[in-house]
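ok so for the tutorial part 2 we go from a plain amino acid sequence to predicted structure tokens. step 1 is just haveing the sequence, like this:
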Amino acid sequence: MIKTTVKVSGMACTMCEAHINEAIRGAFSVKKVKSNHSKGETIILSEEPLDEAAIRRTIEATGYTIGEITSQHVEKKVGIVDFIRRKL
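step 2 — the prediction. this is what the tokens look like for a chain of 88 residues:
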């Protein structure tokens, strides 16, 4: 799983967050996307690495300013059902 963190300037409310989240979901195949206007960031979880230039274009097209983009591999969280199945 890849966690991509995007610094975003210009978000002021939860509607701004939703606007960015919808744009990302429409442009990429992602597992999860969550924006936070208070922190000024969007976090994207995906199976494959995402093209940073495409992320930048997608979010800037919605009217927001992009700062730093970082990506890192993260372990997929194991739910309680998967945990129990492993024990059986």
